[in-house]
Amino acid sequence: MGNRLNEIKEVSERLRGLRDALDLSVAEAAARVKVSEEQYASYESGEADIPMSFLWNVAHSFGVEMTALISGSSNRQVAYSVVRKGKGIAVNRGNNYHYQSLTGVFKNPKGSPFYVTAEPKSEGTPFHLNTHESEELDFVIEGTVDICIDGKMERLEAGDSIYFDARRPHGLKAVGETVAKLISIAF
After folding, report:
1. Would you state the pLDDT for residue 163?
2. Distance from CA of residue 134 to its chain's centroid?
3. Phi, psi of 82 (to 5 degrees)
4. Stated pTM of the model
5. The dihedral of CA 9, 99, 72, 16: what is its sign?
6. Which domains does the chain have, with CATH numbers?
7. Which residues lie closer than 8 Å to 25 by C-beta, 6 or more apart?
8. Which residue has the higher pLDDT, 77 or 130?
9. DSSP secondary structure string, 55-107?
10. CA atoms of 40 and 89, how far apart (whole Å)
11. In Å, how far are 39, 66, 68, 136, 159 from 45, measured between CA atoms?
12. Quick one: which H or E segment has residue 113?
């Protein structure tokens, strides 16, 4: 738990530094990424877990690399980038989700691909919905996931995929007995 709190604190410090560098108030930054001023302030202070969708919106709204927000270092390769198994920049979201960036050191990627593992939740657990200014592809490698998009639910098994407008409220949760593994790409 302590490592995750340090991770959140480091990302929140980078958010504050970016806003300061752009000479924006909290209200101005919040308006640009379409969240309330209070929500933005809670992310920037490290008081709240920071959703990947929020980081994606910040990266695209302010013209910075998502990798720089997550890890503090900028991508630098132009031709290609290899990410070895288990070696991508990792971010834990909540207690049940682990994201590993698949862009490695590629400079200015057109999408944000992640290898995601999700611990199963009980069938009645509500979805945590989010939005971001992109399209998204989720491809299930192992396990079973329920995904809710704009109030409609789909169950995806290994080998299934879904492509959708991520500006619509959406959420995903693993169900069943096994950890779900998927590739998620925001474009």
Report:
1. 98
2. 12
3. -105, 135
4. 0.70
5. negative
6. 2-71 (1.10.260.40), 90-186 (2.60.120.10)
7. none
8. 130
9. HHHHHHHHT--HHHHHHS----BSS-----TT-S-EEEETTTEEEEES-TTBS
10. 23
11. 10, 19, 18, 28, 39
12. strand 112-118
Distance of CA 36 to the CA centre of its chain: 19
Task: At 35, list the tokens.
Answer: 């969240």
State which amino acid sits at residue 88: G
| Averaged pLDDT, 130-135 | 90
Neighbours of 120 (CB within 10 A): 18
Q: What's at 48, amino acid-wise?
A: A
Instruction: Please answer whether residues 48 and 12 qualify as being in contact, where contact means their C-beta atoms are separated by less than 8 angstroms.
Output: no
pLDDT score for 75: 61
* pLDDT tens digits for range 25-45: 999 999 999 899 999 999 999
